[in-house]
Automatic annotation (TrEMBL):
Residues 17-30, 660-672 have a biased composition (Basic and acidic residues). Residues 1048-1087 form a coiled coil. GO terms for biological process: endonucleolytic cleavage of tricistronic rRNA transcript (SSU-rRNA, 5.8S rRNA, LSU-rRNA); maturation of SSU-rRNA from tricistronic rRNA transcript (SSU-rRNA, 5.8S rRNA, LSU-rRNA). One of its GO terms (molecular function) is GTP binding. Belongs to the TRAFAC class translation factor GTPase superfamily. Bms1-like GTPase family. BMS1 subfamily. Residues 1-47, 401-505, 627-672 are annotated as: Disordered. The keyword Methyltransferase does not apply. This is Putative ribosome bioproteinsis protein bms1 ovary overexpressed. Residues 436-458, 469-499 have a biased composition (Acidic residues). It catalyses: GTP + H2O = GDP + phosphate + H(+). GO terms for cellular component: 90S preribosome; nucleoplasm; small-subunit processome.
Amino acid sequence: MDDDQKAKAHRARHSGRKADKKEKKNEHVQEMTAKQRNPKAFSVQSVQKAEKKFRRAKDLQEKRHHVPLVDRTPVEPPPYIVAVVGPPKVGKTTLLQCLIKNFTRQFVSTITGPITIVSGKKRRLTLLECNNDINCMIDVAKVADLVLLVVDASYGFEMETFEFLNICQVHGFPRIMGVLTHLDMIKNAKTLRHTKKQMKHRFWTEIYQGAKLFYLSGLIRGEYLKNEIHNLGRFISVMKFRPLQWRTSHPYLLVDRMEDVTDPESVRTSPKCDRNICVYGYARGASFKSKTNIHIPGCGDFNIHDISLLPDPCPLPDKEKRRSLNEKERLLYAPMAGVGGVVFDKDAVYIDLRGSHSHKEGRGEDGRQVDQMLQSMMKTKQTIDAKMQTSKFALFSDGTVLSPDDVESATVQDSESRSRRPAFAPISEDGANSGSDEESDEDMSAEESDVEESEEEGQNGCAAAGEATSDEDDDGVDLEHDENLEDSGDDGSGDDDEEDRYKWKKNMKEKAAEAFRARSQKQRNLQFLIYGNEDDYKEEEKEETENTADFLGELFRKVKKQENTQAEKRSWDGVESTRCILTETDALIKDDEISDLIKDCFITGKWGDEEDAKALLEKDEELYGDFEDLEAKEKEDQEQVEPVVVEQSGEESSGRSKKLSREEREAQIEAKRQERKRKLKEAFDNEYDHDDEKTHFDELKKEFSEQAQLNQKEFEDMEDERRVQFEGFRAGLYLRVELLQMPCELVEHFNASYPMILGGLSVGEGRTGYCQVRMKKHRWYKRILKSSDPLILSLGWRRFQTMPVFSTQDHNGRNRFLKYTPKHLHCNATFWGPITPQGTGFVAVQQVHEQTASFRIAATGVILDLDRSTQIVKKLKLTGNPFKIYKKTAFVKNMFTSALEVTKFEGAALRTVSGIRGQIKKALGNPPGAFRATFEDKILLSDLVFLRAWTEVPVQRFYMTLTTLLAPDEEKTKWQGMKTVGQLRAERGLHAPVLQDSLYKAPERKAFHFKPFVIPRELQKNLPYKDKPKVKSVTEGGNALERVAVVLEESEKEKLKLMQMMKTVHKEKLRKMKDKVIQRVRQHRAECRKSEMKQLKRQKELKKRICKALSRGKKPQAKT
């Protein structure tokens, strides 16, 4: 050993005798806590606090409960859809490739469309990649059972992640698991830990506390670490899924293959003609019915022309108890990706020879993989019929050689005589008896039972085949060329071919009588045919034959002992009165006697004591005891022996069961007795002891579980072809759906990266009408939504564009129009669209073609009500002016334009600006639109009269389905429907029209001149002197000079002018002096500020010197 090589570290044992001994030696004894040592000290101190704590615990417990639903999942559920979602370049494709390799041990280089794999003994998965298109994200959120949300940890969460989460919240919220990639880009360990913690808590905020988040460290040779992918695959394989309401009530199908079955001639003559297509996929959700209406998101509504059942291309493995799957059971089915090998169709089977599934051993010269058997089939130039016509057949190496003419002649004779006869000529007695002495008696008995069984089943074959079997090595079938057949024919018997050909015609009458007698003996009694299952014995024979048969030469089967037991079992029927055996004495029996014999075989007949049904049931109860689910026992313990019925005589009830010893039988009886006692005790405990612990939630769960078991047992034993006639095509079946008159663009522009979904529609969902919803604008969406602007909604299976009108509901139930959506409140909306069940959620976006960095989800909501009509109103304020007033009556004009409008509003309430209320009475003839109204008080001519009314806002009948699947690949993400008015104005550079009446104006108050106060003369006489109005003189009034006109002379005018000039000069002088004073004051203030600044500066310097001196411990010296 080299010195550089380190010694292997010691690995301590974790199991075994030594590990157990060490564990017992170091066993830790848990010490008692303070609460356990002194429970009284920790008793309840406050009853109110204890009550609140108890209520809080119960509330949390109830919040964790889901509403129990009936589990309608079939025994073999369809593959669960696992969608990988995330922004571009985060590692979605690499993650899918690693998951496929983890489950199937195969590497798929190109992932196109859904890929179905077998992930476990009871689970299949359909892996699907979602591209960065909001239409694709919406469709995937509707069908995915599990979403792997891939996030680039080096960059952080992106807008696409939050957009998809908001879409999922509306459409049922499937199970979501986060996957963080690109962690190797973060080099600092501390930053890495901080990033993981931060993103985990942000992820929990959006999903729920404790949501699972996986970390993928990095890439090695282009793949993630095997251990991390294995852990992720284990979580996916054991995850439980809760049924979503919309999916369980609607059938849907995710298309994994599409074929164009249109007549090629029609496509050649008219390339743009409608196409007939066939789509394939697993049925999911509810059961599909024939002629069901469906909707294809991104295409439109269609009707199913034909639907049929196909074999499962990716079946679950056989029910065997193994821990893991073997290599043959790790199936992969991806027809769109060219992986899967064999593709089944209704009338054809397609075999892919150049996929990545074939093996390296079968590579040809061109380097492509071609299987040898399939290659030989491709090189075949003749059909099977032509080969059969030229071939010959020899049953034994020394037997007669048969040609197709011999077989055809025998077949014609068989159809003419209507009796079942062997198709081949009988072999001579010498050849039949050769080697018979060497066989044992047991073999002979087995051969005889085989012959009897073949006769009873009515199968055509060689009657002497069982007698002629001499050696196992000599038995076989020779299908060789003519030369080999001639040689083998020469070695056989010495009879000529022509004699052997016509030897079967001898003794035809006797053979026909024997065949008729055998058929008459084969008929069962009527009692068994009515009350029993006539296929029981055949099914048992078939199973035993398939499991235990030993084929000789791939043609004959060696008879075993169990078949003798079956033949004996069939002979137990015996000959009863209902046997139809024609004898000579049958003609003497009267019709009444025959009818009595037939009646006696039914329930109305006379039963003996040992044949009474009630007595037989009691015996069975004593003998068998309680019912035991044997299949469940086999699943729990493979080695447990199936209970058998032990009779007193000790004989075996069936020939297939092994004979047990006495001790084993007693042990089984004792075990059954103990099991019965345990069940009785458990039933007693459930009924009495734990009755108070059962809650309403537990009772609901039990009720729904019983209903689910009842649903499964209803059609459990029925074949699929017959079962679909009763319940339709249930979930889990692989279907072929034929659709007629589909748009040609769907076939020409089909892209497998965009999911194609067939969503079933319930009755009434194909109609359109007014839908009333409650919605709220998303707080992250920057723009505000306007009424009657086009909006794209995702509702149910559909994606469509419509024009909603927003409203709010008043306390009296009136829907009042809103021009814009509230910022942080819910509002109602009404639009014209497809009828959808109440409670269905929807998501709204304004555009799907815009590539913006901002948030694209505009609003979310839920369906409230469905109605064929709706009424949304808005305020209408009409104004008028009074033109005649008579006390409390006024004539008003300029409010209406005709007498007809006035008649419509008779009795309506009016109001003036001053608050006086009134009512419309009757229309006037002139002017048009004038009316008479009465008020509470007398109004003025200057008053403004207005009427408050409501007018209905119409909802536009606009509904357009998004057709993204019909667009070419480069235009699938650029679909654009109706544009908003704002977008059209912005493109054309137009401004919104402004109405002058809609502008807000500043109020203008005009001065109101009141009339002089006048007291009547009669009232002045009675007033005291102090209250009587006084008549003032001209001089006393104060305005005498203004009222008297003064005319000046020339000299007076000059003097007045001079005085005015002197006043003007004096005013100018005063103004200048004032300006100088203001200037001096400003200068003085400036000088004062300068002096203050100098003083402050000196003070600061003095403070500095003082501080320095204090710090040095010296006295400061005053500056001179």
